[in-house]
């Protein structure tokens, strides 16, 4: 009894003193890329977040991604210089305006010599740039991973650790978001890097990459630190056909529900100007948001999977499997045009200068082969299904069904063993050791399953199955389960 009381007290203390939830907000990259990244546009986006009800729903971070700084320009001591045309009054003035609207303000930097879009990076200037972030009253720093000479894992960790310490030494509480795109950052995220989140896979800019992020994150549950730091599978895409990248409506809802199950940061990457009613209903659903922000802050995990074994791959910006979808298409088109031009030149000069014609023929062949390699290594989706579960406070759990199959619809079942597995995550969690020492016999006959989007409740006995029918290509359904226990269970 004393042991159980001590465990409960330790749990309560942890929840009180380490209670930083996953960040919620908006990031400019998927929406704007490097177009129209200006103070005027950011203020308009802030007003839009307020107008649509996102801020009151918890989406309080407005984060500017790459392209806010001047091209090839740094200050005399290595300072970052805001683009004078886009930010004529500087960053601090914008920061104060956003704070006055009830928002928190995030900015972007990179551990290399340049950012991913070619602006000045922070390598060798970490202390200077960290002080700037504090002086500008920044609340969140996304720290990217392009153009660093540190290609080894240890070198990358040292780069991130340097900026992390520089931020800490400023004395300002700035969320540090590591953007390294690979699963191997997870074991070091919360402790060595003191990060609030760490990217675990390539940019989630298409459904195939979202599938890879899910399959990667299912293996990283133990590295998420409740109330401290979280695995980050990247931004929410939305379903707008006018955005740079987007999903189908069903996929956008499935992504949001899975991100909530994974206790991931909820950062909108969708275009705020033309969000559909569907997307608004998806991202403003208070029940799904509550699952992500549940005060236990425990990452969910699959309790059933028909998917094949998955091994996460190392990612770097120019690798075929992690290259952004629009960059991938640009490369394919450019390679095709180059190959056609080289073949035409080889054909025209074949009789006059055979050696030169052979060179052009070789270049055309190489371009075509590289284009084929790009296609071959692009991420693919397996035809499979999963059931995820996540422990929630108040003797509850969340349950999610997902059908990844590109073509086949399917009826999925969570039987009594499956339902008990969802409950057992409480007992097996390293965060809640022995807090819920339940056996299947201790379950009462009442389990309430609430469908978070349909809005209906199903009452199940301990021997019933929860069944759902899902369409192909990423449809998902998410429930909360409220269990009743016998009086001897706690």
Automatic annotation (TrEMBL):
<keyword id="KW-1015">Disulfide bond</keyword>
<feature type="signal peptide">
    <location>
        <begin position="1"/>
        <end position="18"/>
    </location>
</feature>
<dbReference type="InterPro" id="IPR017853">
    <property type="entry name" value="GH"/>
</dbReference>
<keyword id="KW-0472">Membrane</keyword>
<dbReference type="InterPro" id="IPR013785">
    <property type="entry name" value="Aldolase_TIM"/>
</dbReference>
<dbReference type="GO" id="GO:0005975">
    <property type="term" value="P:carbohydrate metabolic process"/>
</dbReference>
<keyword id="KW-0812">Transmembrane</keyword>
<dbReference type="Pfam" id="PF16499">
    <property type="entry name" value="Melibiase_2"/>
</dbReference>
<keyword id="KW-1133">Transmembrane helix</keyword>
<comment type="similarity">
    <text>Belongs to the glycosyl hydrolase 27 family.</text>
</comment>
<dbReference type="InterPro" id="IPR002241">
    <property type="entry name" value="Glyco_hydro_27"/>
</dbReference>
<keyword id="KW-0378">Hydrolase</keyword>
<protein>
    <recommendedName>
        <fullName>Alpha-galactosidase</fullName>
        <ecNumber>3.2.1.22</ecNumber>
    </recommendedName>
</protein>
<keyword id="KW-0326">Glycosidase</keyword>
<feature type="transmembrane region" description="Helical">
    <location>
        <begin position="330"/>
        <end position="349"/>
    </location>
</feature>
<feature type="transmembrane region" description="Helical">
    <location>
        <begin position="356"/>
        <end position="377"/>
    </location>
</feature>
<dbReference type="GO" id="GO:0004557">
    <property type="term" value="F:alpha-galactosidase activity"/>
</dbReference>
<keyword id="KW-0732">Signal</keyword>
């Amino acid at each position: 009894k004393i042991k159980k009381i001590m465990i409960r007290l330790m749990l309560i203390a942890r929840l009180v003193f380490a209670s930083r939830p996953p960040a919620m907000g908006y990031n400019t990259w998927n929406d704007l890329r490097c177009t129209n990244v200006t103070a005027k546009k950011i203020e308009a986006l802030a007003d839009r977040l307020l107008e649509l009800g996102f801020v009151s729903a918890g989406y309080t971070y407005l984060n500017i991604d790459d392209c806010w700084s001047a091209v090839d320009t740094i200050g005399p001591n290595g300072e970052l210089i805001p683009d004078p045309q886009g930010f004529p009054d500087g960053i601090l003035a914008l920061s104060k305006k956003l704070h006055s609207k009830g928002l928190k303000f995030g900015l972007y930097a990179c551990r290399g010599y340049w950012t991913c879009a070619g602006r000045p990076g922070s390598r060798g200037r970490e202390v200077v740039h960290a002080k700037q972030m504090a002086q500008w009253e920044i609340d969140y720093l996304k720290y990217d991973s392009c153009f660093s000479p540190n290609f080894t894992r240890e070198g990358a960790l040292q780069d991130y650790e340097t900026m992390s310490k520089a931020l800490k030494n400023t004395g300002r509480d700035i969320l540090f978001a590591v953007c390294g795109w690979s699963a191997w950052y997870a074991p070091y995220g919360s402790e060595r890097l003191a990060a609030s989140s760490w990217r675990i896979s390539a940019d989630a800019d298409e459904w195939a990459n979202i599938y890879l992020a899910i399959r990667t994150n299912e293996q990283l549950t133990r590295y998420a630190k409740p109330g401290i730091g979280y695995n980050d599978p990247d931004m929410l895409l939305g379903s707008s056909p006018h955005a740079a990248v987007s999903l189908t409506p069903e996929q956008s809802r499935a992504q949001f529900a899975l991100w909530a199950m994974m206790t991931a940061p909820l950062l909108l990457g969708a275009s705020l100007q033309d969000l559909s009613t569907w997307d608004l209903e998806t991202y403003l659903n208070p029940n799904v948001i509550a699952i992500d922000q549940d005060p236990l802050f425990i990452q969910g995990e699959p309790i059933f999977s028909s998917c094949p074994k998955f091994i996460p791959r190392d990612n770097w910006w120019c690798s075929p499997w992690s290259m952004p979808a629009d960059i991938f298409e640009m490369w394919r088109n450019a390679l095709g045009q180059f190959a056609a031009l080289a073949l035409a030149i080889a054909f025209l000069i074949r009789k006059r200068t055979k050696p030169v014609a052979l060179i052009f023929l070789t270049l055309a062949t190489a371009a075509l082969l590289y284009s084929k390699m790009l296609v071959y290594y692009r991420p693919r989706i397996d035809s499979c299904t999963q059931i995820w579960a996540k422990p929630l406070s108040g003797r509850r759990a969340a349950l999610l069904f997902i059908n990844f199959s590109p073509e086949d619809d399917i009826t999925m079942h969570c039987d009594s063993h499956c339902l008990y597995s969802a409950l057992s995550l409480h007992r097996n969690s390293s965060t809640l050791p022995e807090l819920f020492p339940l056996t299947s016999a201790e379950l009462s006959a009442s389990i309430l399953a609430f469908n978070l989007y349909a809005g209906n409740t199903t009452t199940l006995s301990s021997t019933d199955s929860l069944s759902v029918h899902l369409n192909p290509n990423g449809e998902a359904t998410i429930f909360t389960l409220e269990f009743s226990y016998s009086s001897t269970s706690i």
